[in-house]
Amino acid sequence: MPTSRRALLGAGAAGVGLAVAGAVPSLAQANPGRPRPAAGNTPFPPLVDDPNGILALPTGFSYAIVTRTGVTKLDHGQGRTPSDHDGMAVFDAGHGRYTIIQNHEIDPGAEHGVPHVKGTVYDPSAVDAGGCTVITTDRAGRNLGEFVGISGTVSNCAGGPTPWGSWLTCEETDDRAGDQWEEGDRSGVFQKDHGYVFEVTADGKADPRPIKCLGRYAHEAVAIGKDRTSVYLSEDAGGPNGLFYRWTAPRGVKLGPGVFTGLAPNAGVLAAMAIVMDDGSVLPDVAYLTSAQLGRPFPVRWVEVPERDAQSKAVREQFADGQVTRGKKFEGVWGTDEGVYVVNSYAWDEGELPADATPHDGMVWFYNYRDQTIQLVTYFPHQPTAEDGSAAKYTDLTFDGPDNVTVTPWGSLVLAEDGAGASHVLSSFPGGPTYAIARNQLNDSEFCGPTFTADGKVLFVNMQDPGLTLAITGPWEKYLG
Asked: Per residue in 148-160, pLDDT tens?
């Protein structure tokens, strides 16, 4: 997420969204659904400015602040809440409480980095860097405690929940052991390679070992397939553009608690997506497809990564032109019973897409497990305001830069914006429009990590700067159901 367009005032226009139908029983299970048209929906009311200047919401909705960087305290004297809140997931903790596992997308030397707590540290030299905290809260958004789940990691961007109630946190970097870091008057040298996925549990029993079989690159997000033998991963990188990956478990291995860290670094098969065209050729970049192909399924094949730990060459550089399909800013990933969603945030500037491809301000894709096809389900056409710095005329109708994605308990999508102009939390309805359901009224910082409780009562979301975790409540079912 670090390559946002925050310096610009413009934004892209909303596209038509196709999303999932079905119901989500809990985050401990895969979410059902595939893209299919819906009979209709009730439009969200207009956003109303917040007298406190933080979060604009529709009438009937309210929010509470759960954590705040540098203000709320960590348990056991560990310090205060770290900064740069990012991806997260929420789990039912019983007795009206919820457990949130939350990323902090921080490079070393930050003012409010994740403190090193004994037993949670991966790289001791990554001081005041990224990691995860584990938060206890309730439907009212009260802060009932927070502690460090993993530390000594770098730029923990997004990730994904597991069916057994843990969180996979992703490092969006490819720093190597021996590389030097510098922040202000502080510096250090990494002792370990970075760019891995780690598993974080809600019980405080940290296991800061990288899951090397999932590869080393600028990870963004991850989702586990329904059969628990496959994992889908996105890469937010450029020069060349990043890839969408699938990892397949070794024969006889089914994923569950503690399985990942017991696998060998070369276990299973890591492969990159290639979208196959009618003539059998491989689509070079997703930006060649536009809203004209909304809903059309394209066959996919998976091309094995030659050297997944990227010791000699970055993973995405190991493929020749014509082997795989690239995309600028592969971002959020979220799995369902029938497939997985993946987002491309935008591609319009020089070098972000092939010269003869079509600029865009956001794409959402759905990959179907059974059919092994992928289809474009939401498309935000590019708007000049994202380039020339002019303000959008209709702030709450003009969207761009979708980033994190989640599936609601009613089957629609919620997207978090990280683009130009005003930042929104968005709702994309099956076969219908995209609505603004919240706007950052405090500044132009991105939203991150939207995630619904299984009962559909609370939407938790982060405002990355100044570092706020927000609990939003209201008549969600009326508008999403």
From this structure: 999 999 999 999 9
